[in-house]
Amino acid sequence: MSIEIKIRKNEPVDRALRRMKKKLDRENIIKGVRAKRYNEKPCERRRRKEKVMAFTAMLRRRYAE
What we know:
The protein is an all-alpha fold. The protein contains three helices and no strands. It has one domain.
């Protein structure tokens, strides 16, 4: 999986880096690498997913009105 960022004419390098970081963030590459850094037990994975589902359900209930 390779990400290509073409630097535009007269574009500063820091702006190109910013575009690259946004692209990596949109494609969840950084999040995936960080998640696979350590082994996660199935029960921990299940607990994490249940926590996320509970949080989204709470937000839906709160803003359903």
